[in-house]
Amino acid sequence: MDDIGTSTYLQWLRNEFEESPFWKHMGITFDRFEPGDVIIKMPVKKELGNSNGVMHGGALTSILDSIIGATIRSTREVRVATISLTTQFIAPVKEGTLYARATLINDGKRIQYVESKAFNERDETIGTALGTFAILK
């Protein structure tokens, strides 16, 4: 794909993610969006808290899953589906903004392995995930 085609696709993809009902509900937006180099962010808000007063593990898992899909799709025009996601909860978060970044492990045609990391404004790791994703045409 040429630079114009890539630029048009990335603009469309950015809009597709940021306008999705789930991303809007969670408050997820892009902080950086380049092919294969994507960072998303999500505010730590009261509505995402659990009974312990910290962000619910499901909210953390959501940003770790979301960054993987966005990163894969930033590198090629495909749809993806999560097959499995193993999440490690490392530190609680009560306030601020959560960021996430993913690293593609392989260039699979049908299956993609990816690692993701969520971190706070001080670059402290809050959680990580190892994902297996199906590549859909």
- Please state the second-level CATH architecture: Roll
Please state the overall shape, judged from the principal axes of the Cα atoms.
Answer: globular
How many H/I helical runs? 3
Strand content: 35-45%
Question: How far is the first residue's CA from the last residue's CA?
Answer: 16 Å
| Main sheet strand line-up | 1-2-4-5-6-3
The CATH topology annotation reads as Thiol Ester Dehydrase, Chain A
What's the average pLDDT? 95
> Topology as H/E string?
HHEEHEEEE
Total beta strands: 6
Structural class: alpha+beta
Low-confidence stretches: none
Overall domain count: 1
Q: Give the proportion of residues in helices.
A: 25-40%
Q: What Rg do the Cα atoms give? A: 15 Å
CATH superfamily: Hotdog Thioesterase
Largest sheet: 6 strands, antiparallel
CATH top-level class: Alpha Beta
Task: Give a short synopsis of this structure.
Keywords: Hydrolase. 30% of the residues lie in helices and 39% in strands.
What does this molecule look like?
This protein has a six-stranded antiparallel β-sheet. A hairpin with a 5-residue loop joins β5 (111-119) and β6 (125-136). The longest helix has 19 residues, at 57-75. It has helices spanning 3-18, 21-26, 57-75; strands spanning 29-34, 37-43, 79-89, 97-104, 111-119, 125-136. The model has no long low-confidence stretch (mean pLDDT 95). The protein has 137 residues and is an alpha+beta fold. It has one domain: Thiol Ester Dehydrase, Chain A (Roll), CATH 3.10.129.10. The chain starts with a helix and ends with a strand. 28% of the residues are buried.
